[in-house]
Amino acid sequence: MDSTHRVPVYFDLETTGFGAEARVVQLGALCGRRTFSQLVRPDVKIPPSATAVHGIDDNKVRDAPAFREAWNLFLRFLEAAAGPASSPLLLVGYNNWSYDDKTLHAELKRAGVGPAEAFAARDVWTADVLRALRAARRGPERGQKLSLRLGDVYERLLGTPLDGAHDAVADCRATRAIADRSVSLLEGGPFREGDLPVDKRRKVELPTRYVRHPPCSWPCRCRRTVSRFFTCCCGGWKVDP
Q1: Which in 94, 170, 177, 206 has the greatest CB count within 10 A?
Q2: Residues 52-97: pLDDT tens digits?
Q3: Are 149 and 168 in contact, with CB atoms under 8 Å apart?
Q4: Residue-wise DSSP of 191-235
Q5: What domains can be seen in the chain, in order of their start residue?
Q6: Distance from CA of residue 217 to its chain's centroid?
């Protein structure tokens, strides 16, 4: 079994809306202790309905870089946070298989960057925390129709409201906190056009076994199942050969 360790990078996008033509207005990421937050000029008007959600309006992005430049800044962040270009990544989001990944593909296409080249020489796979929660509800939530909205799940698991919801970096932190306290993630195919697991029919599930993570020391103290590509916050992962 391939036991390659992929560096988890949590990411989130704020956009002009939810349609196929939505443009990115903020790109946020979290890798280890490093964070990345960049406003993006979409070169289209930001609808008031979108501003009401994330608080970003046309004035805030007037002097921001366009997506191509913002993406280059993100790649520099990856180089500093995740290591050299040869380091394989696991791009982790919340509902990204249904939305954020497709939005990234569209923006990269507009910028003239093919998905296979988007991360330079890196081998990048994806994981969706929301899809994992839907696929493996456990305990008191089994059979119950509890909300799986990011803020609602965060509040149930951590016992406190999500501060700064709909800010890209705040949502990344919430996604990581949820992943650290939940069951194993579902990993999707490489971040390449045609391989992206954007729906149930195209989702690629890896033929791998999962192992129970040993109890962590404080402050982690988790007992969750991890996959061969994903680590808990204490870094103590193992592979079932």
Answers
A1: 94
A2: 999 999 999 999 999 999 999 999 999 999 988 888 888 999 998 8
A3: no
A4: SSTTT---STTT--------EEPPPPPTTT----EE-TT---TT-
A5: 7-207 (3.30.420.10)
A6: 26
**Bridge pairing between strands 34-39 and 89-93:** unpaired
How buried is 68 (Cβ within 10 angstroms: 0-12 exposed, 13-18 middle, 19+ buried)? middle
pLDDT in tens, 193-219: 555 544 433 333 433 333 344 444 434
CB 186 within 8 A of CB 126: no
- What is the three-class DSSP state of 129? helix
**pLDDT-wise least confident of 12-26, 28-42, 46-60, 84-98:** 84-98
- Closest CA relative to residue 234, chosen from 219, 223, 226, 224: 219
Closest CA to 170 of 2, 8, 14: 14
In degrees and rounded to multiples of 5, residue 217 shows phi and psi of -80, 165
**Look-up of token digits 């990856």:** 78
CB crowding 135-173: b at 16 or more within 10 Å, else e? eebeeeeeeeeeebebbebbeeeeeeebeeebbbbbbbb
CA–CA gap between residue 61 and residue 26 (Å, rounded): 9
Round to whole Å and give the CA distance between 113 and 93.
Answer: 21
- Give one word for 45, left, alpha or beta, with left for phi > 0 and alpha for psi -120 to 50: beta
Residue 81's contacts (CB-CB under 8 Å, 6 or more residues apart) are 9, 31, 32, 34, 36
pLDDT in tens, 116-168: 788 877 888 888 888 878 765 544 445 567 788 999 988 988 889 999 888 99
